[in-house]
Specification:
- The protein is of the alpha+beta class.
- The chain has a domain of about 150 residues: Tetratricopeptide repeat domain (Serine Threonine Protein Phosphatase 5, Tetratricopeptide repeat), CATH 1.25.40.
- Helix content is about 35%, strand content about 20%.
- It has 13 helices and 17 strands.
- The protein has a 15-stranded mixed beta sheet that branches. Strands 4-5 form a two-stranded antiparallel sheet.
- A hairpin with a 2-residue loop joins strand 10 and strand 11.
- The longest helix has 18 residues.
- The chain is globular and about 55 Å long.
- The N and C termini lie far apart (about 85 Å).
- The relative contact order is 0.06.
């Protein structure tokens, strides 16, 4: 068609001519542009209806700096999560295969970068798996080697890291975690913030804060909590003055620590009042004692009755870490009563089960809470942990035969989960 001049004729002819001119004046679409366009279209479709697509959309960034950094694979945010609204993320230096396993293509390791700024980096030679992603955060499993975690603080966030048989619950924080399967050793170096750790050596929880190094040797049953900046001349870390190798925080008395429990490591922060800072912000900073002091100053009943959902969760965590199980229980029950439709209410059922396990003959009560959590959140962030804890509590309360049924269910649902080894031992045992 000649469109250099003359009468363009009918409206149809004019439309064809204009289309031709547009095509002539524009460069052909590159494969990159087509892929980027497909990504936009898929994103808009995902907002309109619940998609189950699990495909990967390649997105090669157009800047020279990004090109030299490597190709990023952008997965559908619903591929490992449930429903719409799951955090979008990118992986650099690798890809995510079946079961969420991370296959590294870079000798330096792989980096997972989430839309709100959180980064999870698997170090060179490490094996890991992205277990789940939802709107609040994600769960990463370190099966061997080390990972660096940088979590962006934000209201309602929830990030979990499995390292061997240990579960690390993360707040806004920066730390490295390493699991050595050959020696059965866990190491956590905290740079900023706070994490809590649960594992096979105790029924309680240990808080690890900025500047501390937690080392756990499963074989020798040694648990050491040290200051990173206190080293000997040869560079080895040295325990804090006056401290001994510390077991995980277990059950305390209703009013606080049990007489035989190790003294908690005091916060290095000042004892100034919280002021306008929320309890959740104080928890992210590792300032546990200020949360408890502030709540006690206001009056426990009044403070719990007026706190919002996020601050109730922070108070419960601070109380659990300081072995104030009575306060933790009241805060968790208030969470369920005042915010019954929230995800934190379901999480509280799991945490109440953990508290009951630390109390004398509390297995039957713990089982009821775990069953309730699994009913309310069958695919929740703690579902694997709840079913695994249910298995071990059932063995103690009802014997091996009953626990074997739970073990079989666990292996059907979580064949590579934290408790898979214990479940196989129960299933295959005499």
């Amino acid at each position: 068609m000649n469109v250099s001049g003359g009468n363009l004729g009918t409206p149809t002819s004019r439309l064809e001519a204009m289309t031709h001119l547009a095509r002539m004046s524009s460069a052909p679409m590159t494969p990159l542009q087509r892929m980027e366009g497909l990504q936009v279209v898929n994103g808009r479709l995902a907002n309109r209806k619940r998609l189950r697509a699990t495909g990967i959309v390649l997105s090669i960034l157009g800047t020279a700096a990004a090109a030299t950094a490597g190709v990023l694979l952008v997965r559908s945010p619903t591929s490992l999560g449930k429903g719409n609204g799951a955090l979008a993320y990118q992986i650099q230096g690798g890809e995510i295969g079946d079961g969420g396993y991370i296959r590294s293509s870079d000798p330096a390791g792989s980096l997972l970068h989430f839309a709100e700024g959180t980064e999870l980096r698997l170090m060179a030679g490490a094996r890991g798996r992205l277990s789940s992603v939802d709107a609040r955060g994600a769960r990463l499993a370190i099966e061997e080697g080390a990972a660096e975690v940088k979590v962006t603080p934000r209201p309602g966030a929830r990030w979990l890291v499995d390292a061997g048989p240990f579960l690390i619950t993360v707040r806004g924080t920066v730390f490295t975690a390493a699991w050595d399967g050959a020696t059965e050793r866990l190491d956590i170096h905290m740079k900023k913030g706070l994490v809590s750790v649960t594992g096979p050596l105790a029924d309680g929880v240990m808080a690890v804060r900025a500047g501390q190094h937690l080392s756990v040797n499963v074989r020798t049953k040694e648990v050491l909590l040290r200051q990173i900046d206190q080293t000997t001349d040869d560079g080895d870390e040295e325990a804090l003055p006056g401290t001994e190798p510390a077991p995980f925080l277990g059950a305390g008395s209703a009013g606080g620590s049990s007489p035989s429990a190790p003294a908690p490591v005091r916060s290095s922060r000042t004892s100034a009042a919280l002021g306008a800072r929320s309890w959740s912000a104080a928890l992210a900073a590792g300032d546990l004692d200020s949360i408890l002091r502030d709540a006690e100053h206001k009056g426990w009943r009044r403070a719990i009755a007026r706190a919002n959902s996020e601050d109730l969760a922070a108070l419960a965590d601070a109380a659990r870490y300081r072995r104030r199980n009575d306060i933790a229980r009241r805060a968790l029950l208030a969470e369920r009563e005042r915010f019954p439709r929230s995800s934190r209410a379901s999480d509280s059922a799991f945490l109440l089960g953990r508290l009951e396990e630390t109390s004398p003959a509390g297995e039957s009560r713990a089982l009821r809470w775990y069953d309730l959590y699994l009913k309310e959140a069958p695919s929740g962030a703690y579902s694997s942990e709840a079913l695994g804890r249910k298995m071990t509590a059932t063995e103690r309360a009802e014997g091996v035969a009953s626990a074997r049924l739970v073990a079989e269910e666990y292996l059907r649902r979580f064949p590579t989960g934290t408790y898979a080894g214990a479940a196989r031992a129960l299933r295959d045992g005499p």
